[in-house]
TrEMBL record:
InterPro entries: ABC_transport_permease, BP-dependent_transpt_permease, MetI-like, MetI-like_sf, OppC_N. One of its GO terms (cellular component) is plasma membrane. It is a multi-pass membrane protein. The keyword Transmembrane applies. It is found in: Cell membrane. The keyword Transmembrane helix applies. The chain crosses the membrane at residues 24-50, 96-121, 133-153, 215-240, 260-282. Belongs to the binding-protein-dependent transport system permease family. OppBC subfamily. PROSITE patterns: ABC_TM1. This is ABC-type dipeptide/oligopeptide/nickel transport system, permease component. It comes from Natrinema pellirubrum (strain DSM 15624 / CIP 106293 / JCM 10476 / NCIMB 786 / 157).
């Protein structure tokens, strides 16, 4: 009898989770802006993965006889000052930009989560020291600090990745710490302590899972921010160097031909704008769904 009761309870729990998940999914797709963000991010991902396969030409192939050609069927986004296909360079740039964004965001997430978890759970002097370090890092504007770090290390994409990773982890640390501080005094954590569960296991099994939702939202929005920062540093010459097909470098080159060849700057500029917009919209939608204190209505507003 007890076994049947436990099986019934387990089945009800699974059903409740399935219903909750379906409601969250329905709430996400009920907002058109969330769908727009998801479509933009999915399109960018497909372009980054399959772009080199469908690209019309090699991004570094030069045809000086076809330089500065306007958009045509052969070159959907025209050619640049060296006769290179802008559409092909844009597709290769999508893979480069998205790869850098994922790598930098992963470094920020791991470093910031570890520091925030340690500070929030340990408390005391460790918490004070780590939070003062976070305050010092947040006292400087992120892009300005990344500019200084990249300028010291020298112009290259690797140095841009290091610079952006160094300046962005503090937000994760503060977010995780606040979540841990509100969770570690709850009943299930106290019960685990009374049962003799180790501090390491409590932190990994009970505290860390409760920070996943806010971390996912922040990481999603950070992807767009990193792409924008990478393009900005490349635009001023501290990131990718020619002939690398990076969006910021393409935008920097195209600004010299705004009157005669408008597509050179508009194509990468539009790609950057849409990418950042897509990640911001997707992050807003995930925040509404993953926030346990936010109950998104399924009815459309009138």
């Amino acid at each position: 009898m007890i076994g049947c009761f436990e099986a019934l309870v387990a089945g009800l729990r699974r059903r409740y989770r399935a219903v909750r998940t379906s409601r969250a999914t329905a709430a996400f797709f009920a907002n058109p802006l969330n769908v727009v963000g998801l479509v933009i991010v999915a399109t960018l991902t497909i372009a980054a993965v399959f772009g080199p396969v469908v690209a019309p030409t090699d991004p570094s192939s030069q045809e000086l006889a076809n330089r500065l050609q306007p958009p045509t069927l052969a070159h959907p986004m025209g050619t640049d000052q060296l006769g290179r296909d802008v559409f092909s360079r844009l597709l290769y740039g999508a893979r480069l930009s998205l790869g850098i964004a994922v790598a930098v965001t992963a470094i920020r997430l791991v470093l910031g989560t570890a520091i925030g978890l340690l500070a929030g759970y340990a408390g005391g002097l460790i918490d004070e020291l780590l939070m003062r370090l976070v305050d010092v890092q947040l006292a400087f504007p992120g892009l300005v600090l990344a500019l200084v770090v990249a300028g010291i290390l020298g112009p290259s994409l690797r140095n841009v990745m290091l610079a952006l990773a160094v300046v962005g982890w503090a937000s994760y640390a503060r977010l995780v710490r606040s979540s841990v501080l509100s969770t570690k005094e709850r009943e299930f954590v106290q019960a685990a302590r009374l049962m003799g569960v180790s501090r390491h296991r409590i932190a990994i099994r009970h505290l860390l899972p409760n920070t996943i939702g806010p971390i996912i939202v922040l990481a999603t929005m950070n992807l767009g921010t990193v792409i924008l920062g990478t393009a900005g540093l490349s635009f001023i010459g501290l990131g990718a160097q020619p002939p690398t097909p990076e969006w910021g470098t393409m935008l920097s080159t195209g600004r010299h031909h705004l009157r005669g060849a408008w597509w050179l700057a508009n194509a990468p500029g539009a790609a950057i704008m849409l990418t950042v917009l897509g990640f911001n919209l997707l992050g807003d939608g995930l925040r509404d769904v993953l926030d346990p204190n936010h109950d998104t209505p399924l009815e459309k507003p009138t």
